[in-house]
Amino acid sequence: xxxxxxxxxxxxxxxxxxxxxxxxxxxxxxxxxxxxxxxxxxxxxxxxxxxxxxxxxxxxxxxxxxxxxxxxxxxxxxxxxxxxxxxxxxxxxxxxxxxxxxxxxxxxxxxxxxxxxxxxxxxxxxxxxxxxxxxxxxxxxxxxxxxxxxxxxxxxxxxxxxxxxxxxxxxxxxxxxxxxxxxxxxxxxxxxxxxxxxxxxxxxxxxxxxxxxxxxxxxxxxxxxxxxxxxxxxxxxxxxx
Length: 241
Fold this sequence. Notes:
Strand content: 15-25%
Helix content: 25-40%
Number of helices: 9
Radius of gyration: 18 Å
Structural class: alpha/beta
Order of helices and strands: HEHHEHEHEHEHHEEEH
């Protein structure tokens, strides 16, 4: 519930401008994945004409793996190889580690998988983006900002990764926003909470760059913005590419 998949879709759209991308999202049908991306491009609930225009712009740039439920890790590695060598994709997204058929207590298999993903990224010269989940916080209602050390599973997930990006929603603001949507009266404190960002993107590790820190984001009209009413957030501002 921290908008990981939403932000990942936004990043894919940005990177698709630079070259072909692929996504294996085993929790969502391909049509839903593409529908959500189209709504981001047009900053609204998409109409039929939007889908036609979206296909014209992105039809040859985004490849979606038509597979739901669990997919064995070996098959995902084959998918990555095919996307890189045959489809010439520059970035490949796997959403998520939980859907790769590894038992939650089998940390050695997670370590081996992430090691092979790192090898594939370097050997095939592609960016591989693996979506993971965090351990449940002690206070689920208002959790603290997590770090790479609270990723659920083997510690090698973050140790072996070149970059670690963490999505963290302000759940307190979500509660107040729900109250506001019902038309309920907000206290002065709640009005101040509503001014806070919707999402924080924490760059917790960059092996080949010096900057680490947190970026505040607002989710407006299906798009992510760097200010409440201002500039649209561009992923390449983070990577420097």
